[in-house]
Design goal:
Elements (H helix, E strand, L loop, with lengths): L6 E2 L12 E9 L2 E7 L14 E9 L5 E8 L8 E5 L7 E8 L3 E8 L1
Parallel strand pairs: 1-8
Antiparallel strand pairs: 2-3, 3-6, 4-5, 4-7, 7-8
């Protein structure tokens, strides 16, 4: 098995939504750009001890395809929702990719090109 085979994406999505949505907010404060990653933006994912999004990771891809690990957020089920902003110099990247882990449904991926 290859690692890529365990990553799930939009094609595998059922009625519960797991794909991490990536949004870039360049306008909130001058000079501060936030890359926001949200699971369940349209349809909230369950957030119980039994079934929840445990963490989100964000990666940036440079023009030369170098991959930079930008950060990770872990969530407390029932208390914190999987919605996290990373302050990033977005001009240095050509794409952002995120992973999100559901304790029942595995690891989900998404990328957004700029
Ligand atoms: Fe799930």
């Amino acid at each position: 098995m290859k690692f890529g085979e365990i990553l799930r994406n939009k094609r595998a999505e059922g009625k519960e939504k797991h794909v991490p949505v990536i949004e870039i907010d360049k306008g909130s404060r001058k000079g501060v750009e936030i890359v926001r990653v949200i699971v369940g933006k349209e349809v909230p994912h369950p957030n119980t001890v039994e079934h929840h999004i445990a963490w989100i990771e964000l990666y940036g891809v440079k023009e030369n395809r170098q991959v930079i690990f930008l950060g990770k957020a872990a969530f407390a089920p029932t208390y914190t929702a999987p919605n996290i902003g990373f302050q990033v110099p977005t001009k240095e990247f050509k794409a952002f990719c995120a992973l999100a882990y559901c304790n029942i449904h595995g690891v989900w991926e998404n990328c957004e090109e700029l």
